[in-house]
Amino acid sequence: RTVYVxxxxxxxxxxxxxxxxxxxxxxDGVYEVTSVLDGKLIDFDGHAKRLQRSLxxxxxxxxxxxxxxxxxxxxxxxxxxxxxxxxxxxxTRGAPDDRDFVFPDPETTKPTLVxxxxxxPGLADSPAAKKGIKVISIDDIRWGRRxxxxxxxxxxxxxxxxAKKAGVDDAWMVEDGFVTEGTSNNAYFIKGNKIxxxxxxxxxxxxxxxxxxxxxxxxAQMEVEERNFTIEEAQQADEAxxxxxxxxxxxxxxxxxxxLGEGVPGPRALRLREIYLDESR
Length: 281
Ligand code: PDD
Known about the structure:
- Keywords: Amino-acid biosynthesis, Aminotransferase, Branched-chain amino acid biosynthesis, Pyridoxal phosphate, Transferase.
- By secondary structure, the chain is an alpha+beta fold.
- It has two domains: 2-119, D-amino Acid Aminotransferase, Chain A, domain 1 (2-Layer Sandwich); 127-280, D-amino Acid Aminotransferase, Chain A, domain 2 (Alpha-Beta Barrel).
- It has helices spanning 22-26, 44-57, 66-79, 127-131, 154-165, 208-216, 231-235, 267-280, and strands spanning 2-5, 8-11, 29-37, 40-41, 85-92, 112-119, 133-139, 170-175, 178-182, 186-191, 194-197, 223-226, 239-244, 248-255, 258-259.
- Strands 7, 8, 9, 10, 11, 12, 13, 14 and 15 form a nine-stranded mixed β-sheet that branches. A six-stranded antiparallel β-sheet has the order 2-1-6-5-3-4.
- Helix 6 links the parallel strand 11 and strand 12 (223-226).
- The longest helix has 14 residues, at 44-57.
- It is globular, with a radius of gyration of 19 Å.
- The mean pLDDT is 98.
- Residues 33, 181, 184-186, 205, 207-210, 243-246 line the site of N-(5'-phosphopyridoxyl)-D-alanine.
């Protein structure tokens, strides 16, 4: 695989980042995951805008313009022949000479920019989407700025392991009695013709797929209600689903051992997936 590091396209085995990089030592970095379908980037502008916002919230300088970033994405898709898959991008505050809690001088320490591709044939025609996924609930003990897409993914990663251990696919996180989001996706339920999902705030990541799906709701003759909800309310819903750049719209068929409806993906979630895939290609 050819990867990109700070201005260079290299074989992955030759790509290097300093051990003093702030992301390695302090998780001081942000990332984006953009999907590729039919060799084309999905929603690049949305991801670029959110990246800019993450960077500015953390006072990390943009490593290049968003047009240059688009060129790098396209070049990597081409070099690695990606038809379906994802592009991972990470920007860190860079590598100062030593470990220090104080931010380094941005004049001397430049941000690190890394991108690599993930080839995932069959991403759109996923078998998981036909079966639906099962989730458990876990406490949301993450920090208070989940709107910034940082690389602090230890707890989401542990959450995924808790799910695997429980014999299911993923976990929904709960804070003060209400669902925030999935370990790496936004969470929704459907009751009647209404899609319910938590409103945007610093408590959740502002999903790019979320924005698109809510825009397409009207096309599926559905209404959107953005508000807090509990696990119990979602368990009594007709359907549930998650969204992310790597799963698109993925039906959820079981929450904490309780099956939703018939325990198979519901027609509305599947319709939303279809519309999302049609419209964003
Ligand atoms: N995760 N919430 C969290 C906590 C996420 O990590 C993600 C994305 C989302 C969905 O955002 P979007 O629709 O923009 O992908 C919501 C990516 C895919 C990841 O970590 O791999």
